[in-house]
């Protein structure tokens, strides 16, 4: 979980996708709270930086979740598609974006041709 978070390659499960949003919201809420309480300009700049990095993080994690469903990462920009990303189960087995992160359906009997069973 949370491997190569800034790479759009591969697939992620619903759990990692949901945790990504929780971490993002928590980080932004914490930095905004810190900036409001202290009223120091540095914390406002930190808040903008956390927000910007968080947007990139969310888009990349969203693309991986779309890949897990079997669609292009651009689908995440369709309004309300996030609901499908949160609740639709993974494609079984391998798709064009990689193996199923759950491991379900990744075994193919064709891979066993020519191997001896002892």
Task: Describe the protein's topology.
Layout: H1 14-38, H2 41-69, H3 81-87
Share of helix, binned: 40-55%
Class derived from helix and strand content: mainly alpha
Secondary structure: number of strands: 0
Instruction: Give the end-to-end Cα distance, rounded to a whole number of Å.
Output: 35 Å
Shape: elongated
Question: What can you see in these coordinates?
Answer:
Helix 1 (14-38) packs antiparallel against helix 2. This protein has one domain. The chain is an all-alpha fold. The protein is elongated. The chain is built from three helices and no strands.
Which characteristics define this entry?
118 residues; mainly alpha; 3 helices; elongated
Q: What is the compact description of this entry?
A:
The protein has helices at residues 14-38, 41-69, 81-87. It has 118 residues and is an all-alpha fold.
């Amino acid at each position: 979980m949370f491997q190569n978070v800034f790479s759009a390659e591969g697939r992620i499960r619903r759990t990692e996708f949901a945790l990504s949003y929780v971490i993002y919201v928590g980080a932004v809420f914490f930095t905004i709270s810190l900036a409001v309480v202290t009223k120091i300009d540095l914390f406002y700049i930190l808040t903008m930086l956390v927000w910007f990095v968080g947007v990139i993080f969310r888009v990349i994690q969203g693309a991986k979740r779309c890949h897990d469903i079997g669609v292009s990462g651009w689908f995440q920009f369709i309004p309300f598609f996030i609901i499908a990303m949160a609740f639709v189960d993974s494609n079984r087995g391998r798709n064009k974006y990689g193996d199923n992160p759950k491991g379900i359906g990744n075994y193919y009997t064709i891979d066993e041709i020519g191997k001896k069973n002892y």
